[in-house]
Each structure stands twice: as structure tokens, then as C-alpha cells.
Amino acid sequence: MKILIVGAGPVGCYTAQLLKSMGYHPALIEEHLILGQPIHCSGIVSSDLLTLVESYLSDDAVISRINGFSINTPWEEEFFIKKDGVAVILDRERFDFYLGRGLEINLGERVSTINEHKDCYVVQTEQGKKYEADILIGADGVDSIVRRYLLQNYYQDKSSNEDPLDYYFGLQYQIRLSRSIPRLTKDVIQLYIPEEVPFFLWMILQNEHMLRIGIISEQGKKILQDFIKAQEITGEVIHKVSGRIPVGLIPTHYKNVALVGDAASQVKPLTGGGLSYGLQSAQILADCIGKGQLEQYDRRWKKKFASEIKFGLQARKIYEHLDEDQKRELFGLFRRNANFIEKMVDYDHHSQLFREVYRRPQMLQDVGKLFRFYLEDLVRRFSE
């Protein structure tokens, strides 16, 4: 069986490694010339997620381990959520490189056309090469060519060409500091909640002289520049990571074509992170292929993650409609119940905390009636 994976990012490579371990010989096409470049991710992942792929990695793929978060808002004093080993900071270039070791990867090949021919798919690249596949997997990111092909065929009876997904825009700077910032430590992620955007700004110290700082916002560049100036951070921006983040649920299987990772919009709506759902969905995809049950892939990964994605989308929508007083109440509630959050918070499953809050009516009494209605409605919809 010929299996072709378009996209050799971490999710595409992990899918290929799993299939290779089952005795298949998947080939990958990657449009970029160097594996792991350019980087399209902040590099923050849960420690639980790292255990999925650690057998493929070397120690130098992990820069540091995170033991908590500092929450900074315009409405409340700074407070901390402590959680030993909750996350890790990756060296994404090395992470991607290690996941790709031993695989058949065709670099510098960008897909131009996909056609179904008899019992296989014929993939033509802009570089003039042609590939045949019995199973075609799209792991080619936010602007997935395979997704466009799949959706066009899936919706072939509809005349609409409208993109079914929404998009966020993320931006992160890596700054070589000209002077250290004593208040920062490597094991704590600094989170800042700007008034003007519905997402958060993050700041992570890689080492004494290297800082990562980023945000999800259409106005991200200006917000970051203003924040850097206000915080009196001095140094040289040596690397930028930017790009769109797809959010929403779409069909991810049609005939013998499947999508995984950002191509499948397997993204956490509350943070924009995609590695967790993407890598876990790669396990499901490989298992379905190994069992000859590719048609079950879409149902199986959505059974595991669709409710979390829906929850995140609804929570994001509610947060965007809160006024300043309601946000003050919300983060006041978080600060007063930091100890409870430390016990219940899950880096990859955000609804768990809200379900626990719903089971404790006394916590809901601390917020206004309108917000309580939102929260109860939110949890009721996704706690069944």
C-alpha cells in the first residue's frame, strides 16, 4: 500500500513514524528545503504530550520545564497558578528534526495538483515530480492544499466555495536581551491579559539572555511593540514566528484522503495550540489505517476532541462579549480560587476546570448574574 503524506511538520512526521512502526513505508512531501524551518509554533506543550513522542527525541529538544503561570491583568493584582511540570518549552527546530529521522522525506516539493485516477491518487508538484498514493494524508498546515481538495470533493454537490473555518493570527518574537530581567524565571510562563484583545500575551524566559514573547491578535505587532516598550525590554529580535491559526470543525476524511493537525483544524480555540490534538489525532489516524478502517478516523478523533473544540469556541465567544466589569469579576474569581485551579487545571483539556466550577455553586455566586448565566449555560452544554 502506497501512503503519501503532504507536509513534514511534527504531526506529519509523527504520523509517518507510527505507520513505519506498523510495517508501512510512507513517503512525505515537504515544500520547505529544511526540516523544522520555518517555525510556526510558540513551542509550549504539555508534559503529558511530550510523553507521546519522547522515544523519538533527544534531551536537547526540550529547553526548559514549566512549573506554573503568572497571571497579570489590568483589573487584579498579579497571582500565580503553580503546577509542577505542567508544560515544557521546546526547541522546535530540533523537535521537528528528531521526529523526521529515518523517514523518506522529499524536501522542496510543493503540491500543484491532486487527481483521482482509477484506484489511486496522483499528486503533481510544482517541481515537476509525480507521486501515486493509495492513501493520501494532508498534514500541510493552515493553508492545506489537501484540505482544499478534500472539501471540494466532499461538498461537490454544493456551489459554495466559502471557507468553513475562522482564523486567528499569532505572532511571537524571540529576543536576545541586552540586559537580564530579574523578575522572570525559566520555569514560569508570564501571561498578560490586554484590555483590547480577547486573547492573552505570553512571555517566557528561555535563559538569562533569551526571551520569547507573543500574542494572538490581528494587531499583534503593535501590541507587542507597545508592550515591549512599556516593560522596558531591550534587546534584538532575532527570530519571528507568525501565521494564521484555523479554528472550527470540518470534514477530515473523504474516500481515501484524510487530514491531520492544523490541516484538520485540530486546534484548541482558547489558546490556539495545535500540537496536542494533532499528535493525538495522528495516533488515531495511524490506528485506523492499520486496521483498514480509515472511514472511522473522522468519527474517532472527533469523539475525543470535538466537545473540547466546541467548548473552547463557545467560551471564546462568551469572553469576547464580556464588558470590563465582567472581566474584572472573572479574574477576581480566578485569583481568589487559585489553589482550586492549581488542583484542577489541565493544560490540554480546558473544559475540565469549568465543569468542576459548575459543581461548586458557591464559586458561581461570586460573579454577577449575567456572567453566571453564561457560565452555567456553557458547562451544561458540554458536561453531558
Helix and strand arrangement:
Layout: E1 3-6, H1 10-21, E2 27-30, E3 44-46, H2 47-53, E4 62-72, E5 79-90, H3 92-100, E6 104-107, E7 111-117, E8 120-125, E9 130-133, E10 135-138, H4 145-154, E11 166-177, E12 188-192, E13 201-207, E14 210-216, H5 220-230, E15 235-247, E16 253-254, E17 257-259, H6 275-290, H7 297-320, H8 324-336, H9 338-344, H10 351-358, H11 361-364, H12 369-382
Parallel strand pairs: 1-2, 1-10, 2-6, 4-12, 10-17
Antiparallel strand pairs: 3-5, 4-5, 7-8, 8-9, 11-14, 11-15, 12-13, 13-14, 16-17
Helix pairs in contact: 1-3, 1-6, 6-7, 7-12, 10-12
**Count, helices:** 12
Lateral strand order in the biggest sheet: 3-5-4-12-13-14-11-15
**Largest sheet entry:** 8 strands, mixed
- State the CATH class of the largest domain: Alpha Beta
The CATH homologous superfamily of the largest domain is named FAD/NAD(P)-binding domain
| Helix-and-strand structural type | alpha/beta
Instruction: Give average pLDDT, whole number.
Output: 85
- Percent of residues in helices comes to 25-40%
Q: Which spans of ≥5 residues are poorly predicted at pLDDT below 50?
A: none
**How many domain regions?**
3
Shape: globular
Beta strand count: 17
In angstroms, what is the radius of gyration? 22 Å
User: What is the string of SSEs from the N terminus onward?
Assistant: EHEEHEEHEEEEEHEEEEHEEEHHHHHHH
CATH second-level architecture of the largest domain:
3-Layer(bba) Sandwich
The name CATH uses for the topology of the largest domain is: FAD/NAD(P)-binding domain
What distance lies between the first and last C-alpha atoms, to the nearest angstrom?
41 Å
